[in-house]
């Protein structure tokens, strides 16, 4: 008796209408799978960096994402007689990483959700970086005095979504020389950007203590500045007491 299992099987034909329906179903399922795969892929983080070298003489507009809208303005602000400040002023809805009335300056530190950001000083103007007073005595003060290639941290809006960025700034010669040497932002909303990094999602592994600027809790008030050297002495004494 012959083994039927060795016999070739007859090919069964599928109804032509059913065959077309199966082909259409398989095509649709494949397209859906590709679509779901695309949706599942996370958006690639991308840092967009703009190199520049501008000495600040008049207010400088910083447009982080180059969309024609000013995000922040960097420049000098006149105080009472014999005093002036270096300020960074956010456009409405934006803010600067800071503490009290002062802008922080760091290198290699992530900027993102959970950090402290400020929008203006106690005078309702821009966020203070440094100040100069020359009545009776000549003195400069603030966390950005003699800072070279330090980083401002930014939080700003693109189409209503929050993004983070930074600007590299030097403040020298008793704050008379202010130079903007570059800025960058993260294209992915609500994603950290590391200060000083110009591309990719890399993180800084080492932060040297010398690369950190300690933010000043407060700048001297107009009343203290108006009192001249005596007012500055009182302000310094308060700051030293707070630092202990």
Explain the overall architecture.
The chain has helices at 16-40, 222-226, 229-243; strands at 47-55, 60-62, 72-78, 83-90, 95-99, 102-103, 110-111, 117-118, 127-133, 139-141, 147-158, 161-172, 177-186, 193-194. It is of the alpha+beta class. It has one domain. The strands form three sheets. Strands 1, 5, 6, 8, 11, 12 and 13 form a seven-stranded antiparallel β-sheet that branches. The radius of gyration is 29 Å and the shape is elongated. Residues 32-42, 202-219 and 234-244 have low confidence and may be disordered.
Describe the structure using short key phrases.
244 residues, alpha+beta, seven-stranded antiparallel sheet, five-stranded antiparallel sheet, 3 helices, 14 strands
Summarize the structure.
With 244 residues, the chain is of the alpha+beta class. The protein contains three helices and 14 strands.
């Amino acid at each position: 008796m012959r083994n039927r299992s060795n016999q070739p099987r007859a090919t069964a034909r599928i109804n032509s209408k059913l065959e077309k329906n199966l082909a259409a179903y398989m095509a649709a399922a494949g397209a859906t799978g590709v679509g779901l795969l695309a949706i599942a892929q996370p958006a690639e983080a991308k840092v967009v960096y703009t190199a520049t070298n501008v000495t600040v003489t008049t207010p400088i507009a910083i447009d982080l994402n180059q969309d024609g809208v000013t995000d922040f303005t960097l420049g000098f602000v006149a105080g009472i007689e014999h005093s002036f400040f270096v300020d960074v002023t956010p456009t409405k809805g934006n803010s600067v990483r800071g503490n009290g009335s002062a802008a922080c300056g760091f290198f290699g530190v992530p900027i993102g959700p959970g950090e402290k950001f400020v929008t203006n000083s106690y005078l309702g103007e821009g966020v203070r970086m440094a100040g100069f007073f020359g009545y009776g005595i000549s003195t400069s003060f603030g966390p950005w005095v003699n800072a070279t290639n330090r980083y401002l941290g930014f939080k700003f809006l693109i189409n209503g979504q929050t993004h983070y960025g930074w600007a590299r700034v030097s403040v020298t010669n008793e704050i008379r020389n202010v130079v903007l040497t570059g800025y960058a932002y993260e294209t992915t909303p609500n994603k950290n950007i590391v200060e000083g990094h110009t591309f990719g999602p890399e993180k800084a592994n080492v932060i040297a203590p010398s690369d950190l600027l300690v933010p000043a809790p407060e700048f001297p008030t107009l009343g203290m500045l108006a009192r001249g050297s005596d007012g500055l002495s009182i302000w310094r004494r308060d700051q030293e007491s707070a630092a202990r």
